[in-house]
Write a structure and sequence with these properties.
The structure holds two protein chains of two kinds.
Chain A lengths: L1 H36 L4 H17 L3 H23 L10 H19 L3 H61 L1
Chain B lengths: L9 H12 L5 E2 H8 L3 H13 L3 E5 L4 H4 L5 E5 L1 H26 L1
Antiparallel strand pairs in B: 1-3, 2-3
Helix pairs in contact in B: 1-5, 2-3
Classes of the chains: A mainly alpha, B mainly alpha.
């Protein structure tokens, strides 16, 4: 009985999956249209609809298509909100404004770290020198460790050889004694 | 947010960095989505925001949708304003990162 139920469920699942695969682009298009309709400005809605439908065509597979459509639907209010934002002032790229931003950034560093920018630069310089020295010391240590390892290896080989010779001598003594 | 400033989320910074890497290139939404791994729900609001700010210039693909049998793609290109703004935004982010790191170490 269980076998028959599983078989029936399998067939039903396959049929539903086939239907979804067959119709998914149509459903996704409908979802994208609904998403574009969430943007109240008709001109922008039209633009976004065409853009999102073109993007939908580029998505291959059921999951990717649904993911795109749902993403558009969820993101549509944010798109509408972004399009309502005031146009930014062109002075953002004005050199004098940039200088102000730089001064502000410098003041922020000084304020937040509690030290002046000059002291900060000196600290960074010292830190980089210390790091460089530490790196050089690390390299030296590594070389020394390698040398120690090489020596210990040679020593262990020598000890093994000595042991072998000792064993050989013992065997020979036992043999001649006998 | 002042009018001179465009605050960007980490996803926004990733997006502008992608444009800055190849400023002359025009990108479609799908290409950007695949390249930086952003979903449509995050990407399109960001693109709209940057477009409104004048950082990106959108243009339609030059095809006849009836002949092609598909809608036109919309491509985005970084403007000169956008390039400057993006550089400032990325520099600000690095600066804040540096200040944060400094506070953490002291």
């Amino acid at each position: 009985m269980d076998y028959l139920i599983n078989l029936a469920l399998g067939i039903a699942g396959s049929l539903i999956a086939a239907e979804i695969v067959f119709h998914h682009k149509r459903w996704c298009r409908r979802l994208v249209r609904a998403a574009a309709a969430r943007i109240k400005d008709p001109a922008q809605s039209e633009i976004k609809l065409e853009e999102w439908l073109a993007a939908l065509d580029e998505h291959v597979g059921v999951i990717a298509s649904f993911s795109h459509s749902i993403g558009c639907w969820v993101g549509a209010p944010a798109v509408a909100a972004a399009l309502k934002l005031p146009v930014l002032n062109k002075a953002a790229n004005n050199p004098s404004k940039s200088a102000t931003r730089f001064r502000f950034a410098r003041a922020t560093i000084e304020g937040r770290s509690g030290v002046s920018a000059r002291v900060l630069e000196q600290m960074i310089k010292q830190l980089s020198e210390t790091t460089r020295d530490a790196g050089a010391q690390l390299h030296r240590l590594e070389a020394e460790m390698k040398e120690v390892m090489r020596r210990s290896k040679a020593l262990s080989v020598s000890v093994s050889l000595l042991g072998l010779v000792g064993l050989l001598v013992s065997v020979m003594r036992w043999f001649f004694k006998g | 947010m002042t009018k001179d400033d465009l605050r960007l989320s980490p996803a926004g910074l990733r997006l502008v960095r992608q444009f800055c890497d190849d400023p002359a290139r025009r990108w479609s939404g799908t290409e950007l989505s695949k390249q930086i791994g952003l979903g449509s729900g995050t990407l399109y609001p960001l693109l709209a925001k940057l477009e409104k700010a004048g950082w990106l210039k959108p243009e339609w693909e030059v095809i006849d949708p009836r002949e092609a049998g598909r809608p036109r793609r919309r491509y985005y290109t970084l403007t000169a304003t956008g390039a400057r703004g993006a550089r400032n935004a990325l520099a600000d982010f690095q600066l804040q990162d540096a200040v944060g790191g400094l506070q953490w170490t002291t």
